[in-house]
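Methods — Computational structure assignment.
A single polypeptide chain was analysed. Its primary sequence is given first, followed by the predicted tertiary structure written as structure tokens.
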Amino acid sequence: MRRLLTILVFTLVTGQLYAQSVRVDGVRMWQAPDSLRMVFDVSGRAQHKMFLLSNPDRVVIDLKNTSAKKLQLPKQQLQNSWLKGLRSARRNQGDFRMVLDLDRRVTPSSFILKPNERYGHRLVVDLKSSGSNTIKKIPTTPSTNAAVSKPPEKIKSVEDKNTGRDIVVAIDAGHGGEDPGATGYRGTYEKHVVLQIARKLKKQVDSQPGMRAVLIRDGDYYVSLRDRMRKVRESKADLMISIHADAFKNTRARGSSVFALSQAGATSEAARWLAESENSADLIGGVSLDDKDEVLASVLLDLSQTASIEASLEVGNAVLGQLKRVGKVHKRRVEQAGFVVLKSPDVPSILVETAFISNPTEERNLKSSAHQRKLASAIMKGINRYFTRNPPPGTLLAMRQGRKHAHVIQSGETLSSIARHYKVSTDVLRNSNEIPHDRLRAGQVLQIPQLGSTS
């Protein structure tokens, strides 16, 4: 009886231990310009601790009561990242250790994600660059998730009293990395198509005289919503466009939508900013809240947010009007919601749902490079229309608006030839004169915002 009882207790204990053991099944990695994210697929909620070692720089992760198969990352990814190597080994009493060999000092953090429809439990390790290292230049390849580090972009116009500054447009491609966004009927990921549209839009913005675009995400990596807001404000953007693709359980849902921030979203964000203003160096339209009393800070913030929402609705209507020419729109007016990415209180911001990726036809269109260019062109025309009417003070466009030149159209002239002559875009010329088409008549007078002609 005693022997039977011992065997029973041993079986129960070992069974409990076996039930509580965790297995590491795989690893994925995404390199961003200023951070590195690693995601470990685990079979349960892994108990772990993490610490740093130096000379050389390493991050050590110890997991209790854990086993693992051999963990590997593609060699190409390792060549293009801060991570020099990933080592792992069993330790005493069933524990497991992973060592991340790095080429720089980092600040690590970690958390466990619960299972979702695609993955089970995941251990997420985020590494933020904390040293003075610069990111190595790496080639662009379609087969790697690593972010591409680029040299600083050449600014097309120099800010001075003679030329004015560029209008800065921040373009935010939604999702990325471990967050694929919506998935299409045929498996297309939202994160991929919106980045392709964002890059095409950037190219069009950069081609406009006096405009410059900044991509908030320029690779397949994750950027938190608050970090997106921070990057937009750090870029000193005059406008933020966030690009997404919608999804719905009904595959027949289709059409584009444009969103601006709701008043409820603005109110909740105002409370957050005011609560943090004592310890914050952030500015509202160039005015610090740190040295203002609560009432004055609240008034300043409210004025800034109200103006920002009004501007967002105006640019949103301009963009939506152009999207109607590309295809069906889901809603015929700009909608308002509390999206976090729209909450910068002093930067007009809109979110464009380009199409329903859950609709097979629209999914196919979203994968088409030609259709992506049409969407980018529609957004660009809306941006041009807005800034032609509302050029930010001190910009090249504002100075041109202040130096309008009257041009009498001669027989045989076209809008494009006149635009080339005065070194302005046809969109700016069309919007300045509210011309709905390119047909001109001899004797018609155009107002030309310009710095000087080629004559």
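Note: The longest strand covers residues 22-31.
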